[in-house]
Amino acid sequence: MGRVVAVATCALNQWALDFEGNLERIFRSINIAKSKGARYRLGPELEICGYGCSDHYYESDTLLHSFQVLEKLLESPISQDIICDVGMPVLHKNVRYNCRVIFLNKKILLIRPKISLANAGNYRELRWFTPWSKARHVEEFFLPRIIQEVTGQQTVPFGDAVLATEDTCLGSEICEELWAPNSPHIEMGLDGVEIFTNSSGSHHVLRKAHARVDLVNSATAKNGGIYILANQKGCDGDRLYYDGCAMISMNGETIAQGSQFSLDDVEVLVATLDLEDVRSYRAEISSRNLAASKVNPYPRVKVNFALSCPDDVAVPTCMPIQWRHHSPEEEISLGPACWLWDYLRRSKQAGFFLPLSGGIDSSATACIVYSMCHQVCLAVKYGNADVLADARRIVNDETYIPEDPREFCKRVFTTCYMASENSSQDTCNRAKLLAEQIGSYHINLNIDVAVKAVVGIFSVMTGRTPRFSVCGGSSRESLALQNVQARIRMVLAYLFAQLTLWARGMAGGLLVLGSANVDESLRGYLTKYDCSSADINPIGGISKTDLKSFIQYCIENFQLTALRSIMSAPPTAELEPLVDGQVAQTDEADMGMTYAELSIYGKLRKIAKAGPYSMFLKLINMWKEICTPREVASKVKHFFRMYSVNRHKMTTLTPSYHAENYSPDDNRFDLRPFLYNTSWSWQFRCIEKQVNAL
């Protein structure tokens, strides 16, 4: 009697609508799983077409091509003698579902539609799919002819059912269902399901991984069982980075852990586990057994196949391990770096261009690119042929081997300090020293000629010459002059990104990187269409506070000593004239608030769903030791005025790596108006009434 089962899960770097590449990666994962003795293979959510297809799900082509890929999988000898569990969209009775298709030896066993759809934050699954609402109900699904010709089946079971093999019982969950308060694994476990599977499309957020791990382990801690989780990894075409973390858990303990950040397109985990450990664990939980005796049974699809071998007495089983979590600084170093690599190789560009100001934000962006170069060199060192092939194509050298991160950085990364008469020598020196230490190709240029030319056109046409406020001009004049500098930098950034390699006799163009952090975007402390306007922004979802910690991490781990002076310098835009040769303008003075305060405002506004009045009520308690109610009211009003005045800038925000749950990204995460009544008269009156009462 077999009792030791071998199961496999994986993290795949799938790409939306890349059916050819997605199929190849699925085949590779099945091959690896079989070579390690697995009898069941689980893949990520919607892995056939890629999770991020968005409105392409409406297209019949997406459904057609998904079935064409399924046909290739079914007929291939690679997928024989192993239960394969793949994800794809399926149209059943003219309703589109997010499904798992489970097959064995050219026969489809079950199509299991998703029950709980993700529809918050970055997710819009209800826009494209309908949840399956018929609990424990199965219908007949009529297969397309191309599939019938391979399987010999006309119909297959479609619905909420479980698989009964010769030695155990398996039940499926799909991503969000693990996070739901009434997760299917609860009732399935009571009905005798011993192995739970979860195919996910779960993205990275700073400090989120532990929540996913805790949910998986707790799923089997109370009920016993084996839980297998697969996840998408990489950038599949938008702002999100899916962070892998495939895992296998048993009876509340982690058995196998996949990497969270990796340049490997295919990662497969295999574990051998003793079913008797599940049965003995459950046997002594009397409350579970009482509930199990009353549970409504699931339809069972009988499978003439076993996950174990008859003679497995000598087969060693896997033991529990301690999950190793990354620090937030490590997450910033690795997550955006992997996202940048995916974007670079898939966009078929030759590298990145960054306006490097010598401040914390652009320096942090440069460090992330440097970290990417580190990851590339490590991947090649450990034999990753895909990364080597991509690196050779990017640098246009078929014999090249990236071994030194600084040398690779020189080939793929161009930094540029764009000085003006308002720039200090200190920031120029800081930018130059950091570029030397990371190895980037660095350019120093001066924009004054272009600024004077643009302002000169205005003066010729109007007969008026605007002045900075320190020179007697109005705030309107001063702001306009600052914005001209900022916008000229953006124009020059794109010019140099397109032609720098051409001027150096090299092929290709460069992607322009932005470096506005999440707090500046929230406050609107940026010029519309300045250097915050770029192709992509790896730090656009990261707070200033976390970026400072990341800079300290880079000093210690990459030995980038140039960052010490950058850390100690006050953040400044350097757009106003110097005073006695020194910078007089600082970000926090300009904003009228600190970055620490901004981070708190952002979390209350987005995560706590607080409007002006609710934010005031929360902050008078949070800040009671440092601010009077009148001071809190003044701060809250100032924030909401500035936020609403500048909200229009979010409509043009550069696509940014999503890392914070208080991101103001207007594209799909933070959906709000961009034309506000900025007086907030009713809301502020409520605050005033409360202040007077206090």
From TrEMBL:
UniProt record, GO biological process? 'de novo' NAD+ biosynthetic process from L-tryptophan
Keywords for the protein's UniProt record, in alphabetical order: ATP-binding, Ligase, NAD, Nucleotide-binding
The record's section on PROSITE patterns has: CN_HYDROLASE
According to its UniProt record, in which pathway does this protein act?
Answer: Cofactor biosynthesis; NAD(+) biosynthesis; NAD(+) from deamido-NAD(+) (L-Gln route): step 1/1
Question: How is this protein annotated for GO cellular component?
Answer: cytosol
Task: Tell me which Pfam families the record gives.
Answer: CN_hydrolase (PF00795), NAD_synthase (PF02540)
Q: Look at the named UniProt entry and state the broad enzyme category this protein falls under.
A: ligase
Q: Which GO terms describe its molecular function?
A: ATP binding; glutaminase activity; NAD+ synthase (glutamine-hydrolyzing) activity
Under the heading CDD domains, the entry gives: GAT_Gln-NAD-synth (cd07570), NAD_synthase (cd00553)
- Reply yes or no: does the keyword Mitochondrion apply: no
> At the top level of its lineage, which domain of life is listed?
Eukaryota
Q: Where is the CN hydrolase domain?
A: 5-275
Q: Recorded E.C. number(s)?
A: 6.3.5.1
Summary of subunit composition and partner proteins: Homohexamer.
Entry's family note: In the C-terminal section; belongs to the NAD synthetase family.
* Protein name stated in the entry: Glutamine-dependent NAD(+) synthetase
